Amino acid sequence: MSVKSNKPLYHHASELLKIRQLKGLEFRARLKEYSQPVQKDLWDRIFVYIDLIFVFILLGQSLLGFWIQPFEILFALVLLPITLFTADVIGQVFHKALDTYAGEEHVFWGKAAQEFRKHHENPANLNHVSYINHLAAFGKLMLPMFIICLFFDWTQNPAWGANLTLLLFVLLNATEIHKQAHLQKPHPLAQVLQKLGLMINKKDHSRHHQAPFDCCYSVVNGWSQRLFDGTGFWKKMDLFFWNKFKKMPRIWIQDPRAIPATVYAELKNNPQLIPEDLIIYSDVFSHRKSNELKNLLYRD
Fold it and tell me: Which of 6, 164, 232, 258 is spaced 20 to 30 Å from 80 by Cα?
């Protein structure tokens, strides 16, 4: 069955199209090379350093505020669980957006989207990336938020300032927190935080890397996992995305076994909606090719 793409190839599919032509050892070597982290340039790293400087500035304002108003410390502690839950929700939303919906050529989040999708193919590919390089994909994304916060005087509201600073710092470090959940021996501080339930651990996060990769998007502490997975929220969002835009969520392209039966029925009647990316991806990662997809592509 010949299918023409109704949309441009995504970045990862363009790479896989070349790999698909290879055979044997050359194919496996190139596929392993493909799944390595996206290279960061100097500016990506500079943005991270600027973000970290802003963290210390904002934290300094809050500490000065606590010195002036010590009772604000109690209010800050009351806000702390809300802040950590919010960080997990935002982290999960970012993770899902980059895994599934974000464009791979976008100047702000393109590299992050590519990295997240390649990470699915090789979950250990980030384990040896340095701290700054790991944060670099999000340096540009976080910078506007830090700049906005600098326009407020947090010495007057130190409890809010401290929790907002913590929220931004955790989100900036979400990829590093996620990395620690992949390591056999995490950093000693990470081990303590994981045992306390303040950081996502390897056991909970590993479920995200089991086919068809469509659950467990938490990358901070897992507190919002039950809210999203228990309600099937993301699966409903994927279906809404398809029904609204007729554009296939990337998670379906990476693993066709996640495609709902209703969508397969629609594709059977409208084969022009089948993206070329899906065909390329299923050829390279043939073990993920569902029976429904085989019947769709190879019917007479």
Answer: 232
| Identity of the residue numbered 214 | D
Whether the bond between 275 and the residue before it is cis, its omega within 30 degrees of 0, is no
pLDDT band of residue 7 (cuts 50, 70, 90) is: very low
Domain limits of the chain?
A: 11-34+233-297, 42-211
Which residue matches tokens 């693993």? 255
Task: Kindly report the pTM of this predicted structure.
Answer: 0.83
DSSP character for 102? Answer: S
Question: Which two tokens mark 288?
Answer: 């993920």
85/71 Cα distance (integer angstroms): 23
Question: Rounded distance, CA 37 to CA 192, Å?
Answer: 27
64 token code pair: 């000065």
Q: For residue range 86-127, what is the model confidence (pLDDT) as tens digits?
A: 999 999 998 898 888 887 777 777 777 777 777 777 777 777
Give the torsion sign (CA, 222, 48, 34, 273).
positive
Q: Rounded to whole angstroms, how far apart are CA atoms 168 and 170?
A: 5
Q: Which helix or strand (DSSP H or E) is residue 214 part of?
A: none
